[in-house]
Each structure stands twice: as structure tokens, then as C-alpha cells.
Amino acid sequence: MYRILVVDDEERIRQMIKKYANFEGHEVVEAADGMEAVQICREQDFDIIVMDVMMPELDGFSACREIRRLKNIPVLMLSARGEEYDKIHGFELGIDDYVVKPFSPKELMMRVAAIVKRSAGEAHKETVRFEGLTVDFTGRLVYVDGEKVDMSPKEYDLFFYMVKNRGIALTREKLISDVWGYDFFGDDRTLDTHIKLLRKSLGPYSKFIATLRGVGYRFETE
């Protein structure tokens, strides 16, 4: 059984989805606009959200953005418009699927099932946590106290390398050769600059990156 949040300003649409979802044994919670959806997600967890794009108060894209700041719940977006721009914008926000109205309720529920199963499989991905710092190697994601951190590609490379080698003293030479490659033509200042940026991105958890004077750095959590 899935817990589904259905968000649409049209009660007819909500009831139609609820009818088919209930028939398949799923639990449905309804929201009439984006603002209500965000508030509900603050208090409850769901396996998936089915959300309309065009709604009063707060549109689906904005609601999705706000919810993603709170929780990582799969989202299937509904829209009466099938423009490529809307789809691209939605996928850039991280939605999982996009269905254009009018739609087949049976097909919708098949898509819901596929998304939830895929999401459940991703729950087994390689993830480590240190206090409020979450590192998702598979998804190449970093969260600080639940907030996703945006880093440059090289920052991600450097950070993941250090975390995977946590507790090990890493010399400057080893970090540069393993992260940048043997053909790197920069100098130690490039490494130091990236460490500085990395510490800024990690906020309170920059404490995990220890400087080893005359040697290099070490990621340590104890």
C-alpha cells in the first residue's frame, strides 16, 4: 500500500485519482493547492505526490521546490499543457514523471507504481551520515541538516574521495594525483582553494576536514 498525496484545485480530478488509488488499496490524502500541499508535507510523509502544475495560491512547480527543501518525496506532475518547456522545467526541478491531461487513471496508477518501486530501489543506494551531514555516493548528493548542498564537480570529486578514505592521512600529492590526475599542471594553492570552498559548503560540518600541517588533509568524524 502506498501513501499518496494528490494535489489539484479541481475536486473532480482529485476524486477520480482517489477512486482508482483506493481500489488498488492505496491511501490518499488530498490538497487543493500548493500551499496546502507544502503544509501537509511538513507534518506527514508520503510514498509519492501527484501534483497539478496550474493551481491558485502556489503553483505545482513552486510547491515542488518548497517540498524538496523539506523532504525527498517522488513527484508525478499533472498538466493541461504539454509544452516541452513545462516538461523540461519540471525535470530540472527533479520531478520523476510528467502526465498531460486528460489522462487514463489506469495508466496514471501504473506510472505511480513504477516511480514508487524505483524510489524504493534507490533507498538501498550507498549513503553515509555523520551527525547532520548526509553523503549519497550513488546520487552524487550532499545534504547539510536536510538541505541539499550545491558544489562544483571538482568539489564533489574531492569531497567524495576524502569521505571514502576517511580516517586516512591524505598528502597533498596524493589528493592532487588521485582527484585531479597525474597530468595536473596546477599547484598546491588549487587544492587549498577547493578545500576552502568545500569547508564553506559544509558549514558546521567543515570540522570533519582536518588540516595536517606539512602533510595534507584528513576527513575525520571522531
Largest sheet: 5 strands, parallel
What is the H-and-E element order? Answer: EHEHEHEHEHEEEEHEHHEE
Beta-strand level of the residues, as a percent range? 15-25%
Oligomer: single chain
What is the averaged pLDDT score? Answer: 88
Q: Which structural class fits the helix and strand makeup?
A: alpha/beta
Q: What is the percent of helical residues? A: 40-55%
- For the secondary structure, the number of strands is 12
**How are strands sequenced across the largest beta sheet?**
2-1-3-4-5
* Low-pLDDT stretches: none
Gyration radius over CA: 22 Å
**What spatial form do the alpha-carbon principal axes imply?**
elongated
Ordered list of secondary-structure elements with their pairings:
Layout: E1 3-7, H1 11-23, E2 27-31, H2 34-43, E3 48-52, H3 60-70, E4 75-79, H4 84-92, E5 97-100, H5 105-122, E6 127-130, E7 133-136, E8 141-144, E9 147-148, H6 153-164, E10 170-171, H7 172-180, H8 188-202, E11 209-212, E12 216-219
Parallel strand pairs: 1-2, 1-3, 3-4, 4-5
Antiparallel strand pairs: 6-7, 7-8, 8-9, 10-12, 11-12
Helix pairs in contact: 1-5, 2-3, 6-7, 6-8
InterPro entries: CheY-like_superfamily, OmpR/PhoB-type_DNA-bd, Sig_transdc_resp-reg_C-effctor, Sig_transdc_resp-reg_receiver, WalR-like, WH-like_DNA-bd_sf
Domain OmpR/PhoB-type: 125-221
Protein name: Stage 0 sporulation protein A homolog
